[in-house]
């Protein structure tokens, strides 16, 4: 077992290096051109994704939940969790459609109990992703048969290294705190080229304006949860997580360059600006309630809000709105100890969510809504020392619409990962 864990953690380190070296794109996502890109709002794991993204108050002994650091306390044995997330989407602007998709590392998490009242966890996960390509409408030049074609693109992403702690204070009250290091690059380009069939050469080159911003700073969160028995078989939990406002350091450079229509440089790059500054990342609040029977059944509801209207770019631009998200979810395991049916040992999940995203375009705030499903499949035979689980989650939803010059995204998201629970620091007599 220890050899397997060493291999998995070695692979996790490799994933960290790979993720740091490449973009974290999720296919063509036009709305990611705003702010810090498309945000990763699932701060938990695949279990949370299958329950509509809920989980602020829903602790679990065998599934680590980093959405609320106060819930880490409930993981009283060492737990390793790793997952991959991806999506396939269809974009529609009212006249044209396009299908895109991609997949990337979702999280690598290790949780270790340090005492009977204290559990700690470290995790790597995406914070945001930027990946879009937009072709603007051709514009005619007055008094000429030529037209100007404009292109817009962006790529990159921010990663988060999370370090959290959860403590039991007394009774059903637990508290937690986390510190995260956020780092990464976002690159955005806008280009234009002239098309005129009556002249030669003009349509073979384009002028590109490029902006690259490097972010690196810390993000702090505090959480609490209270769980109380309300009947002989049911428990009620209430939890909250607050993310503090921060001014992140940012290095911003911009340049102009001539390129061929095949994106090959023509001449030297001309640096027009290089500045150091900061961006204001606003505070956020997540609250949730859940009911469970302490065994095989949980129902949860969460609400999330963040004041993105206070966000400012390095050059002072403000192009976002306050976001709000509501979600409900549930999970059920028929019989975790059943020996007559494997399907009774599977955990089944489902959820619904509705969100006012931070993207406000042409006076309209973009909406996102969807339905989720998820499963945890036991792998092999569990023992008092080790437990292996395969986790799956799916979401089908719609973001935006085709009115008011917006883009509608119909998407299918998927998550797949593995969770290993293992009792460390126990000397075994027999292998």
UniProtKB/TrEMBL annotation:
<feature type="signal peptide">
    <location>
        <begin position="1"/>
        <end position="23"/>
    </location>
</feature>
<protein>
    <recommendedName>
        <fullName>Long-chain fatty acid transport protein</fullName>
    </recommendedName>
</protein>
<keyword id="KW-0732">Signal</keyword>
